[in-house]
Amino acid sequence: MVQMYYDKDADLGVLSGKTIAIIGYGSQGHAQAQNLRDSGVNVIVAEVEGSPNWKTAEEHGFKPTTAAKAAKKADWVQMLVPDEFQPVVYRKELRRFMKPGKTYGCSHGFAIHFGTVKPPADVDIVMVAPKGPGHLVRSEFEKGGGVPCLVAVKQDASGNAKKMALAYAKGIGGARAGVIETTFDEETETDLFGEQAVLCGGVAELIKAGFDTLVEAGYQPEIAYFECMHEMKLIVDLFYQGGLSYMNYSVSNTAEYGGLTRGPRVVGKQSRKAMQKILADVKSGKFAREWTREAKSGGANFKALEAAEKNILIEKVGRNLRRMMPWIKSKEV
User: Fold this and answer.
1) Residue 62 in contact with residue 43, Cβ under 8 Å?
2) Distance between CA atoms of 304 and 319, rounded to whole angstroms?
3) Which end of the chain has the least Cβ crowding within 10 Å, N or C?
4) pLDDT, tens digit, 9 for 90 and up, residues 269-304
5) Alpha carbon distance 192, 280 (integer Å)
6) CB of 106 closer than 8 Å to CB of 154
7) In this predicted model, what pLDDT tens digit does every residue of 87-132 receive, in sequence order?
């Protein structure tokens, strides 16, 4: 049964007198740093000097410094740079300052779970992972609410790691909404699987396949775009608000019946077997090793795949159509 914690279960006092170093002032870093500061916690920010994030931190009232200087001063080091950069940052900037009694924290378990970062045995290792992007973590906090968080303890050297993690979650507003206890293994493996098989991989490929099927059958690309890409948001919003049942309730009977009877043909046994293989690759570390090699090589294959994706027909059509709809606030990369 899921274990949930709320504000009443967390004591911000355990962070009293401690300094938390936020390593990376990006999406999560800017939100967590500001929320903690507003909760009365002493926070220092580390960034690359002269970078846009450094300047943003200054604009938000911080005096950013290097990761090494921040780690030296801090009792808690919160690693919030991208997964592929964490090993280098840890090795060059943080490792020598991870002394007994300190806490190493993160908001995604990849580096710890797969061993690309290995803090010493005499420090606490915890995870506090908001289940939402940084801008939402910040805006909900400012409204007096919060974004639900996951919390996990990998290493409890002090005997107080869980209390510390819950206090951190309270400090960023997560305990206002609810904090779910998990493990580094569970968070990392489910997160990677969800991204690859559903959120960033599966859904994108489904959209592209649907679009291509219509265009190859002679339908106008613009019409195919509306049916397979544009209207996806309408459906996802219904999922977001009330799950599958609310989506079925909200669409026409024709759409509901067609989906219930034809959807399993698309995502059938073969697709489910592919998902099982993806999960197996995640659990075994095969994907982590592949991604680590890719990052070390400079990401040539990654960049090629990314560039190719920008030039497929659905992307070209979409760029033109989105200009017709100013309410979308179209973004170009």
Assistant:
1) yes
2) 20
3) N
4) 999 999 999 999 999 999 999 999 999 999 999 999
5) 11
6) no
7) 999 999 999 999 999 999 999 999 999 999 999 999 999 999 999 9
* 45 backbone dihedrals φ, ψ, rounded to 5°: -115, 135
Cβ contact 77:124 at 8 Å: no
Query: Is 154 strand, coil or helix?
Result: strand
Angle at 331 between CA 48 and CA 64, to 5 degrees: 15
**Sign of the dihedral through C-alpha 197, 199, 204, 210:** positive
With tokens 């026409």, the residue in question is 252
Residue partners of 63: CB distance under 8 A and separation at least 6:
44, 45
Greatest CA separation found in the chain?
A: 68
Beta bridge partners of 78: 22, 105
Q: Using the 8-state DSSP alphabet, how is residue 8 labeled? A: G
Give the SS3 label for residue 61: coil
Among 296, 121, 270, CA closest to 202: 270
> What is the C-alpha R_g of the chain?
22
Question: Catalytic residues, which ones?
Answer: 108
Burial label, 58 (beta-carbon count in 10 A; 0-12, 13-18, 19+): middle
Question: pLDDT tens-digit profile of 44-64?
Answer: 999 999 999 999 999 999 999
DSSP designation for 115 = T
